[in-house]
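Title: [Solved] Branched-chain amino acid ABC transporter permease 3D structure

Original question kept below for reference.
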Amino acid sequence: MSLSIDAILAQAMLGLTNGAFYAILSLGLAVIFGLLNIINFAHGAMYMLGAMVALIGYSYLGTWIGFPELQTGFWWALALAPLVVAIFGMIIERTMLKRLYQLDHLYGLLLTFGIALVLQGYFLNYFSTGGTPYPATPSLLKGAVDLGFMYFPTYRLFAIIASLAVCFATWYVIERTKIGALLRAGTENPGLVQAFGVNVPLMVTLTYGFGVALAAFAGVVAAPIYSISPLMGADLIIIVFAVVVIGGMGSIMGAIVTGLSLGMIEGLTKVIYAPAANTVIFLLMVLVLLVRPAGLFGKER
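Solution (posted by the thread starter after getting help):
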């Protein structure tokens, strides 16, 4: 089967959309693991929760509070849903996760896995597993853009650009600013950092809140593209964990680069050999772990 360059580029762009979501979700996982040493299995549920907050704000909130005409559109959801999920995440960290920091990683994994199941079960009582379309795509982002080799949906282009902007802004803050230096130092030696007057427990709480806010941001951006379902995070979290492992656990740049790259590889695989598209990421994970167990960007211990 011969493929034209235009067809390959078009499929790569479509794969890049998925890659942008892989990147921002794996980035949130990398931030939480790299700075707090927590394997956050609830990350997919936070992604779903962000999309659900956007849907509820547009379709149900006004009815619930007695003002049917009140709706939170896409731009308001993009600003408020990550904040709502961040607050929820910080409550979880303060009330549950902080008790597990001195214990084995397995306890944090089991706790966050349980939180994910509770959230999914709660929303399954009210929403269909088949998915609910998000009805508030901004008119500004409708239509398509001529890229020369294809007409690419304007909203998908926005999703890629917005995700990349958030990813690289996060990398810059953590790797190039004083705040990021304090976060990294607090991870390595919290007692010393606290001796300099830094409130390390508050810093840990805010960091966890920021990590889950990244997942919620991805959920809101994904809402107009994919159907909103209580299981949408569960369908994605295994792939995102594979991306994090390939990039290197805790590596910020590894999460970004690997997420984008694997999205495009997955997209191209659908053209070359479609049955392998669902397994190519896991095959690459096995190969990377055999050659470099710490991941492509991870540090050997």
